[in-house]
Write a structure and sequence with these properties.
Order of helices and strands: HEHEHEHEEHH
Number of domains: 2
Number of strands: 5
Strand order of the largest sheet: 2-3-1-4-5
CATH architecture of the largest domain: 2-Layer Sandwich
Shape: elongated
């Protein structure tokens, strides 16, 4: 890869990093080609973009990213690195966790989710427990409906009691 190609790859990585606020770094080094392909297929089905990148190029891209906090991911750049982008913050963590039921890898190196840095594989369960935007909206709607349902239920019970007393 010549210097112009490296520069182009770095620029593409910077664009992706600036466009995404949910970035995962994983280690897939000990997986066979068959298992890597199976993992990529799962990611594709879940709308998670996976790219294996050179650490030196990713390091330069992280340094150039608009959010300077992304540079905190640089210490995790050891060994082979799979770069994952997603729209839903917990999906890659769930994919990694579920895939690891069959194998010891992939391992989570680090993640940048909603301006927070998560370092190390021990953060996998914390990331998997994060709620997506749609899950949070559903929880809020459920909380808002609960008091209304109690009032309606109380009114229905009162109406039935009144009908029984009149009969």
């Amino acid at each position: 890869m010549n210097k112009a190609e490296k520069t182009q790859v770095i620029e593409q990585l910077v664009e992706k990093l600036n466009a995404n606020n949910k970035v995962y770094l994983a280690d897939c080094s000990s997986l066979t080609v068959e298992k890597v392909n199976a993992f990529r297929k799962l990611c594709f089905q879940s709308k998670v973009s996976v790219t294996v990148v050179k650490n030196t190029l990713l390091k330069k891209a992280l340094e150039r990213a608009n959010d300077s906090k992304m540079a905190e991911l640089i210490p995790a750049l050891k060994g082979e690195t799979a770069l994952m982008f997603t729209d839903t913050s917990n999906v890659p963590a769930k994919l990694i966790r579920d895939f690891r039921k069959k194998d010891a890898k992939p391992a989570l190196k680090a993640a940048y989710v909603e301006e927070m840095i998560y370092m190390g594989d021990e953060q996998l369960n914390n990331l998997a427990a994060l709620k997506s935007k749609n899950e949070l909206i559903g929880d809020i709607i459920g909380l808002l409906q609960s008091p209304i349902q109690r009032v309606i239920g109380g009114l229905e019970n009162k109406t039935k009691d009144g009908e029984e007393a009149a009969a």
